[in-house]
């Protein structure tokens, strides 16, 4: 490959042509390589399915353009950088494109999740996983079901019952919801978070009784500590009260108020004790003001104060000592007790969770990285490649800043092995400023370290760091504003390393697109300010103004940090007659027609449910154009005694018997025909039918089970639609990553240092008070520093991380705009001393520009050419016909040849299940399930036993052998060979190939080909056996 270095890191700021560069470097490998199947040696990893699809599409399109000599900017660069002539590039592109399309499974541009899934599938036997496991991406329903199962155990397990009941009562006492499900689901998510693995592994191996004993000990500590505080306070106040001294006779009542706080305690409020003023009183001995008071009582109390002054000092010293030794720990214990019960039942949650997965044959995608790290990563790299059936020489990793530490660590052995051989390459692409998935394990610091050109510790090869310095996305005014604003913002970043990254942003170069418009507005709140009322109204006016400048609604995207902000904006715009495309509007469960389908299914499942029937009738009244008053229609329908009468009244030919005789999918099509939904060309209905079909293919449950499945999944089921020129797009910043829009509106304010949703693991292993517990997860707050130096370190770290997260989100939001950018925020009258909110930073920036309220750059008239929208090919109606009406019949022609082929496939499938002799019953059960004639079944059953017990074969079916059945092996030419059975003895192997019929020379050539593949992988072939599976088993040793 043409490259100055085997290890390249690309710093790719927003709009800098990242995908262009990835595709160019990818194709450069293919064009200069002698092997036209070089693409099979490249593993390109992206973060999302969309990004993977886009890169694949760009690679194929560029190859197509090059093969047809069509103008393409990537091809122009490739000609310059490879030195190849256009005719050679054209010819090679044709052949490479053909090879990719013919071997598409070896076109490895994948998401990181799909690659880890492939690894898990490959090693499923080694991991003890069922071969046909289902991958679960949506973990929330699984965890919710886990907690439901746990709660159902209340009354069965005495200890668990006592703990959960007490926890529920504690929540009620704290004026919180008695429903413990949410808090238990929250702690259950710890099982899936790879960053919590060390702490969680310790907790799930701890008995409930240990937690109970700890809770008792901690509550005793709290009582003792509170008593100690209270005793000191009461004794000090008693000294004052005995002399009948008024508390306000002391300077600002400081001294008595100090001791009063010890008596009253802190309840749940974490607050520091005001010690500076009282400390000054005791240090100077000045307990009252020097000026002579007018109040006779205060004057009289002066002598009394002087008399008791020395008596108060011992209590003050004791109080200081108690504060120094117990104050922080006291609050820490209270914090730990609040999270102790959920952590205590984590072991029980894990048990239910594991059992639920096993019973449903489920593997969770979120756990794959951990499994690979523990059980696959440390295998010899050649062995991993052998099992995968492919070996990679080039690695492309996109969005490196969002790749988790564990994902990266799992890839390092494969990459290191390749680079150490001197013929591979690694290319990382990322941008620390766009790291917005810390909660999912992505850390900007990882990419920052990798992009340090001086750091060669990892692979010990030359590394080159390249900065893609030009923004090709936006117009010049948008680019210059972002350069200037984020350079200004860099001085406020707490982490020095990231200060430099943002400071360098001012150097991003503009492109040929001159002009554009930026408007930054910070308005002042009034006394009755309600964000979800004020912002949507202002955004509506802004959109109307933008439209008047020549833009379509579809050119505009409103980006929000929080989902509920987007919902508020969408609701308002819809109320004003503006169409929107938002995550909420795309959910299947929010579509009226889908809702009717679900109501219909619920009613069919339970015809006695009148509430559901009302919902169906409400829709049918308009859909069927009923011409009687609505109330009368409902009354008539509800008066019918059975479904037959009801449908006769509605003049609909529906039969419950017919519905239940069909599959669920066919039943829904039956409903479409009966209720005349064919004319509704609704993408939501199509998507709902797809959901039903997918469920039917995976499950074989009843209608009731499907409705249960729907209830679990509906919150995430949505349609994927292309943008429309007539609809404003509304989405969260996270969803917008990687996208661009002609006009972006970014509204609402945000606290960049709000840490209240964060949690930390507080280490307690060096404190006897906590028995043998080493750490606890507690909620973060601004008072973490009260707990001591560890708490202060946690606070500083989290504050810096949250600030960077929010600055990165702001960067992603403001760099989505191509031509126009609108920023809208609010502020209170009182200016903050230290900037924390987005609006604070916006105001500071505007003050530097001598602007107040509004800051504008450029002209708001549209500059870009209006693109013609492509012709839409829409389904005008839904085509649904009863299968019986199609008059299509499949007639099977009898053929001995076909029967022999089917029988051969059956035998192969059965032998695939036989790892050892103990699996014979499993294979026979499989054959039995195929519904074969008794004679054929008996023959197949006898054959399986005869092969396994054959004198020449039996030793290869013993238990404890390492065996692969029906395993794919990749040849050097790119062909895939599937071997029936391979038995491994260290570096020696035995190949067994099952055949039906008579001996054929081609069978011998085939097994010799298998031999060459295994020899190429470093194995010695001990025996090559052709096994002919007929009435009499014949074995040929080749």
Automatic annotation (TrEMBL):
Domain of life per record: Bacteria
Domain UvrD-like helicase C-terminal: 487-738
EC category: isomerase
Record domain UvrD-like helicase ATP-binding: where: 1-475
Binding-site residues, ATP: 12-19
EC number: 5.6.2.4
Reactions it catalyzes: Couples ATP hydrolysis with the unwinding of duplex DNA by translocating in the 3'-5' direction; ATP + H2O = ADP + phosphate + H(+)
Full protein name: DNA 3'-5' helicase
